[in-house]
Automatic annotation (TrEMBL):
Domain of life the protein comes from: Bacteria
Protein name, per record: Non-homologous end joining protein Ku
Keyword DNA repair listed: yes
Gene: ku
InterPro entries (alphabetical): DNA_bd_Ku70/Ku80, Prok_Ku, SPOC-like_C_dom_sf
Any single GO BP term: DNA recombination
Pfam families for the chain: Ku (PF02735)
Family according to the record: Belongs to the prokaryotic Ku family.
Upper classification of the organism: Bacteria, Pseudomonadati, Pseudomonadota, Alphaproteobacteria, Hyphomicrobiales
Keyword vocabulary terms for this entry: DNA damage, DNA recombination, DNA repair, DNA-binding
Assembly and oligomerization: Homodimer. Interacts with LigD.
Region span, Disordered: 252-293
HAMAP family in UniProt: Prokaryotic_Ku (MF_01875)
Record carries keyword DNA-binding: yes
């Protein structure tokens, strides 16, 4: 069954346009989900909005948006006022510029979507836009209203389609100086830097998403299975972390040069190492697979 489109409209640059649809590229639907229950009765509980002063429930029709201008002093925004203020959607992804993907700091990346043609009549124009960007090795910057907000997208060629990634607004990204202001300016050189470069070189590989496990999800799966089958609950073994007191010695040990030994070459290439990881840490089964078992 084809996935449900999150948005449908037109991708347009210059006088070229084509009908397109956005599909969610990342989903959490396969994760284990829980309900909140009453411990005593085992019944599900429901959330309820109550007045902070009277403690009485507030019905949905009596709930309105409020903006605090002073402590406990609000202005009320009626639903029709909010609806009138948000930008209207013309259902068009307007391409405003083309630039290299590397020109955009990935700290601005928000959420990826698959972008595909939604009508046969626009498939040729879609292919033209995709191949043009692929040949020029550029991404398109486009804007449209989606989910009642004007969003900026970075669009790039991906296989037979396009990837459209929403971008965070500048005001949403915290200044980097705030995070790094206390980091000292330390210069690393000589043998210490050479050892670090050697360790990095021996561990080079290619990214393979299937080789990485969601350990939290896997642990929950084991826990639920144990509870259902009445078996002992698995106990997580604590991870041993050794404090590094001698950085140079730790680097030499990591590089296989401890006690003056020769450098140890990796016994397998990165691809084989990934294969071992995948076998020793099998991926978390999907919800469909768990139901089937």
């Amino acid at each position: 069954m084809a996935p449900r489109a999150q948005w449908k409209g037109f991708l347009k640059f210059g006088e070229v346009s084509c009908a397109v649809a956005l599909y969610t590229a990342v989903s959490t639907s396969e994760r284990i989900s829980f309900h909140t229950l009453n411990r005593e009765t085992g019944n599900r509980v429901r959330r309820e909005f109550v007045d902070s002063e009277t403690g009485k429930p507030v019905e949905r029709d009596d709930q309105v948006k409020g903006y605090e201008i002073n402590k406990d002093d609000y202005i009320i925004l009626e639903p029709d006022e909010v609806a009138a203020a948000v930008p209207e959607s013309d259902k068009i992804l307007h391409v405003t510029a083309f630039l290299a993907c590397s020109d955009i700091d990935d700290v601005y990346f928000d959420r990826p979507y698959y972008l595909a043609p939604s009508a046969a009549a626009g498939e040729e124009a879609f292919a033209l836009i995709r191949e043009g960007m692929r040949k020029q090795k550029v991404a398109a910057i486009a804007q449209t209203v989606i989910f009642r907000r004007l969003r900026t997208f970075m669009i790039r060629a991906h296989g037979k389609g396009l990837i459209a990634t929403t971008l965070n607004f500048d005001y949403e990204v915290r200044p980097v100086d705030e995070a790094f202001e206390d980091v000292p300016d330390i210069k690393i050189k000589g043998e210490m830097l050479d050892l670090a470069k050697h360790i990095i070189a021996t561990k080079k590989g290619a990214f393979d998403a299937s080789a990485f496990d969601d350990r939290y999800e896997a642990a929950l799966t084991e826990l639920v299975k144990a509870k259902v089958e009445g078996k002992p609950i698995p106990v997580r073994k604590p991870t041993k972390v050794t404090d590094v007191t001698d950085l140079m010695e730790a680097l030499r040990e990591s590089a296989g040069l401890r006690n003056g030994g020769k450098s140890k070459r990796a016994t397998t290439k990165s691809g084989s190492a990934r294969g071992k990881t995948a076998k020793s840490n099998p991926r978390t089964p999907s919800r469909r697979e768990r139901k089937a078992s």
